[in-house]
Design a protein that fits this description.
The structure is a single chain. The chain is of the alpha/beta class and about 220 residues long. Strands 6-5-4-3-7-1-8-11-10 form a nine-stranded mixed sheet. The protein is built from six helices and eleven strands. It has one domain: 3-Layer(aba) Sandwich (Dihydrofolate Reductase, subunit A). Bound molecules: NADP nicotinamide-adenine-dinucleotide phosphate. NADP nicotinamide-adenine-dinucleotide phosphate (NAP) binds next to strand 1, strand 2, strand 3, helix 2 and helix 6.
């Protein structure tokens, strides 16, 4: 029987004050050894999934480069289909499988532009991408494991819908403060501690100046 949803593992590097980035500024929190660890995780995943802002701001490749292994399918959630043709994702889409997920709000011209590219375009959801439906579509495509690599807005959507199975968080030796920063989970604070919490701490690993925390829901 086909599972109704792939296993979702959230992977992020956070500062000591729980931030994953700065608004409108690309910063790198991971050390070289942490990048190797994350790329090993990528190589073990069927797909890697990020939000539109992460692509806009960081222009990532989302490939396996710091270790040997296969590239996961890259999945970008971009309701309006605004990803730029000169982004590294689009420039490399001939050789690396890429799915752009848009919603019904996409303009005809953006849809036409994307459909001319060697990528898979999935229309899913009315305004924003419907992530529950998307996971079921991905499952039917044979995708069993998804590495969720943020950013904070997308992480929050997955948390709100209880779609995260596991979190692997690298605690890095930086502090960013609260203004113009991005939290691991963006959005209003919960009125009370979520009923699904506390999570179960399954593993702790110290590497150099970083601590890797592995929590299961
Ligand atoms: N340290 C780390 O590990 C790490 C990892 C990744 C990113 N980051 C940082 O995170 C920051 C970006 O995070 P962000 O919170 O601004 O944006 P984000 O989560 O990367 O992207 C959010 C966007 O994705 C689109 N989206 C489509 N469907 C969605 C859905 N169902 N739920 C949520 N979003 C959906 C929305 O734009 P549309 O409505 O236009 O579709 C939304 O505004 C950057 O600073 C980046 O450097 C850090």
């Amino acid at each position: 029987m086909v599972n109704s949803k792939p296993k979702v593992t959230l992977s992020a590097a956070i500062t000591l004050d729980g931030k994953i980035g700065q608004k409108n500024n690309h910063i790198v929190l991971s050390s070289k050894s942490d990048k190797i660890r994350v790329h090993k995780l990528r190589a073990k995943s069927d797909a890697i999934l990020v939000g539109k802002n992460t692509v806009q701001q960081d222009d990532p490749l989302l490939t396996v480069r710091y270790t040997k292994g296969k590239n996961p399918i890259r999945i970008i959630l971009d309701s309006h289909g605004k990803i730029q043709n000169n982004s590294r994702i689009i420039k490399s889409c001939k050789r690396i499988s890429t799915i752009i997920v848009v919603s019904e709000v996409i303009s005809k011209s953006n849809l036409n532009r994307l459909q001319k590219l060697p990528i898979d375009v999935i229309i899913c959801g009315k305004n924003q991408v419907n992530i529950t439906k998307l996971l079921s579509i991905l499952s039917k495509k044979g995708i069993k494991t998804v590495l969720l690599e943020g950013g904070g807005t997308l992480n929050r959507s997955f948390l709100n819908k209880n779609l995260i199975d596991e979190m692997i968080i690298a605690l890095t030796p930086y502090i960013l403060g609260s203004k113009n920063t991005i939290d691991l989970f963006e959005g209003v604070s919960f009125p009370e501690l979520k009923t699904k919490l506390p999570l179960k701490l399954k593993n702790v690993q110290k590497t150099g100046n970083e601590i890797i925390l592995n929590y299961k829901f």
